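User: two proteins, same treatment. go.

Assistant:
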Amino acid sequence: MNLTCIFFGIIFTIAGFMFACGKGHIHFSSWKNMPQEEKEKIKIVPLCRNIGEVIALNGLIFLLKGLWTGFENHWFVTAMVAWFIVAGFDLWYIEKSDRYYKK
């Protein structure tokens, strides 16, 4: 058991679920300081759900590493590299897509 990975897994999983439920973005100063007209242009619920799922996936990878001894270091590194690639494509999709902007 790796307590550091379990700790980070719990933190990331909770943060991911908070975002997915729409409770995470309100704590960011950038969201608080954003003008109201900018906030009204964004579909925040699907955006938070998307980001929350990516963060929770990272937490599950950490929990898997911390709780399962068969999940060795090379598999953990491979999973994290794959997660970074998926997260990068997700950010690219968020930026290029109109899905998260109100018409």
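Protein 2:
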Amino acid sequence: MSDINICTFTGRLGADPEVKSFQSGGRICNLRMAVGQQWKDKASGERKERTEWVQVTIQNDGLVGVAERFLRKGSRIAISGEFRTRKWQDQNGNDRYSTEIVLSPFGGTLTMLDGKPEGEQQGRARGNDQRNGDDRGGERSTGSWGREPDGSRGGSSWGSGAGGFGDDLDDDIPFITNASAW
């Protein structure tokens, strides 16, 4: 039996997406995603929370375009990709390691959980064309934000905020206080 390397997270972006272009024409996008956990302390009854920061690298050109066009600091997203550890050397020649979730050209998903992006007119995200699955890493395509093309099918659709992730809109947007730590 093969092992499976898939990680799924929901959270909010701690900064605007950082898109890098290469001379070859390829592009990647780096995201910093805050993933929160909340619980009630049994001893004190006090609400506690902890935030973990996840580095996400998007190598799928269609998803890079979606991230660049629609995502901003504070955007609520769900991602699914491969867990990878990268080895690199700092300025002093010391070995360093970074862990990240990679949405590769042939795998990974990005789902916007905030609904219709700001600035979009009624209807379609790109004029009158139908969105294809490549822009979302294989997710189901819908004709307009939050609706099925014929309006008769049930279930969740991209941008509707559905999918089992709570709609707690009172969540504080996480901010990093010491940027030099990254």
